[in-house]
Amino acid sequence: MSQVNEHHHHAPSTPGKLKPEKSPYNRLRIHSSLSKLTLWSSFFLAFILFLFILSPPSPSASPRRRSLGDSWGGSHWEKRVAKSARRSSPSSLSVLVTGAAGFVGSHVSLSLKRRGDGVVGLDNFNRYYDPALKRARQRLLDRAGVFVVDADLNDSALLRKLFDVVPFTHVMHLAAQAGVRYAMQNPQSYIHSNIAGFVNLLEASKSANPQPSIVWASSSSVYGLNSKVPFSEKDRTDQPASLYAATKKAGEEIAHSYNHIYGLSITGLRFFTVYGPWGRPDMAYFFFTKDILKGKQITIFESLDGGTVARDFTYIDDIVKGCLGALDTAKKSTGSGGKKKGPAQFRVFNLGNTSPVPVSELVAILEKLLKVKAKKKVLPMPTNGDVKFTHANISLAHRDLGYRPTTDLETGLRKFVKWYLEFYSKKSSW
Predict the structure, then answer these.
(1) Which of 182, 190, 223, 244 is flagged as catalytic?
(2) pLDDT tens across 242-289, in order?
(3) Residue 244 annotated to the active site
(4) What pTM did the predictor assign?
(5) Angle, CA of 64, 65 and 71, to the nearest 5°
(6) What are the C-alpha distances in Å from 270 to residues 42, 68, 119, 216, 363?
(7) DSSP H or E run through 257
């Protein structure tokens, strides 16, 4: 997994590295005029400032080209955005999907487009995992008529422009810095995306006219060290076990304040271990498949009591149905021009599968589907922020969203393996 700094600040690199050579004017005799010195030092400072302005962004701050003019703007770009946002009927939705080239984002965007909704995507294509996979999803969306804007959530001018071009009825906010373990290497990327990026989106939404209704991805990780099972939306969520979980919990609290102050209609969805075709390579089911096929040893973690880690694996198609159900039942925001006119809807739902599966069983299913015996190493679970198990109570989503997961793990993994073998056999011939 390539690990680069996720920050996408536009600031140039620090001029501190430009150590000027000693100016010949330092060698002037004592009686040199003070005014001359002042004049030349002014020139010198102006020259340094000129270099500072011209210096390119430092590689650590920006893993890819970040020129505004190249990324967005202009009449051709606006036409593409407007075309992508076109709805099949006045009752259809017009949705801004952030993280559209991501796993859940690409599936949700395609489903919305297929049923006639207008969809505009936004993604910064960061390198937390292979951007080639994100670009492949982008091509899929492009063929379906969904334009994915290549930009960062923290670009407030871009968000304002998008809301100017399209009066979005809904925002499906799925962009985030994902992963529990990566926070130990790059904590700032979680603050940048999951907190600053989310606030920027909420700011743009509260000022938009009309204000959109917002549905966003929280996470089952907010339950943290909660040991009462299954996890219910009424349970305490103030003991996060990872920085990732803490940023998602912070997002829930920030969302509540924007709902309360500005009348934004906001629904948070706590996803439980989503898997399936076009999935994320940093997830266990994905890299287990890769390593088993390569004959590499895989590591299975067990808890202190000797049981293996268990997860409430939820198939992507089930998650998509939950996302669309949340969008369809979201009430309108009540604010206008950034001012609240009345109380607005605020909801949180678990989207899981209600049947936790031990990771050892996940491996056994993969061995069967791949027809390869895995080389296993069992280790005690490290204290890296992971939790022993997750288990969703989904009665609230069932009641309010009509959410009914129907895919068991073996069926879902069979579909994933079929996609994986097809995608990576094609990729090797690119």
Answers:
(1) 244
(2) 999 999 999 999 999 999 999 999 999 999 999 999 999 999 999 999
(3) yes
(4) 0.83
(5) 120
(6) 57, 34, 23, 9, 25
(7) helix 243-262
